[in-house]
Amino acid sequence: MVKNGSLFRRRKALIKRATLLHAIRQFFNTRGYLEVETPHRIPAPAPESYIDAIPSGDWFLQTSPELCMKRLLAAGYAKIFQICRCWRQEEKGNLHLPEFTLLEWYRSDSDYRDLMEECEALVQSIAAGTGSGEYLSFRGQDIHLSSPWERLSVEEAFKRFSPISMGEALKNTRFDELMIQDIEPCLGREKPTFLYDYPAERGSLARLKKDDPTLAERFELYVGGLELANAFSELIDPEEQRKRFHSEEAYRRAMKKRPYPMPAKFLMELEDMPPSAGIALGVDRLVMVFLDAKTIDEVVTFTPEEL
Amino acid sequence: MYSSADLRKGLKIIIEGEPYLITWFEFSKPGKGQALYRTKMRNMITGIAIERTYRAGETFEPAQMDERKMQYLYREGSNYHFMDNKSYEQIVITEEALGDAKNYLKENMEVGILLFNDRAIGVDLPNFIDLKVIKTDPWLKGDTTGKDFKPAIVETGFEIRVPPYIEEGEWITIDTRTGDFSSRTKG
Fold it and tell me: Given CB atoms, is B2 within the 8 Å cutoff of chain A?
């Protein structure tokens, strides 16, 4: 017997993980996406109220490759994807690791609705390619993957599953709490669900809806109650983006968080960016869904505690 | 002081002056939203269970417990009497505060008494304890009904499920954390 029995028993999960990574690359390669790698260590993360970067010297470990990916879009790379490690301070739980793997992809001349379709195609193609077939068994439910998946607006989800409306939840600062306790567990049970059109303040890098600027063109993908991906129609107005960064950074500083410098090069190049859409999908969680795993710890080689 | 990021199952904290044990914990964070630390807790004095959700950056006072070795003397209604063998001081713990521990208390047994602000709020038992079976049905040899366990009553009056081969008068080892039969006591 080997000394590290729990690592030995993770073999099935690690093989599945490798298979999924291979299937993801195959999907994007056949669709004409360019695989890119951007630096993990960056001088200026995008300021976001509730996401904290881990300092690395005078710089930071990336919380997402988003800004570098958008600089590539702005420079004319129209379809790009990346699978990379990201770090977020103090995120540890059954569904969170401070170091985790994101898949991000971006396409120009597209919006968030195009990405919903591409999400469906990606997960269906992985399921077909890895022998899972047309449905996934996850958390005691059989989730059918056939198109179209459920599309539910955030406002409608509050009406359906929460005791108060989205507007009231925002006013009482109970939006996150109700989302976690009342809404998320009901999403993606029979088919995966796209929860879309978030309040504008919940998408600092997202484009607002033309016919209702209180809402952002953003969606999250849920499978069996688990949040798998977050997507936007990207904001491409540099002045608006600068304003939003300043307001997020002001909140961060008021909360006594470590200040970030403004991502100046990104803001300067943003005006070259064509209308685009981008998405981040948690690879560890995707593996969890395909393996019916209860915790994220089961699908990685080592957790921080095991090092 | 603990902060939200320290919360985990098994931690003991003070809420409104009373000690609570965290019995369930989950870190949650909706996309782009704030971190929420969800807990279920049990009041260590009253036994009442509550659910609380906290945000990042909240602070908690640790519930400091002292432990004192004492001898269990006797029960009087729902009051259980214990004595410190050195000072001969006697204390009373109620049935509610004892919780499942009452199932394993035998007269003259030495246990650790948990004290919070000098108030006795529970006992700390060994993980495994040996007790004598005082009543159980005999094992019918050749019984092939496939029943794996049968009820038995041990000397404290506690009813437990045991394998069919355990007979009256035998000693068994019980896991006090789960209340389950562990093995026939050796020796």
Answer: no
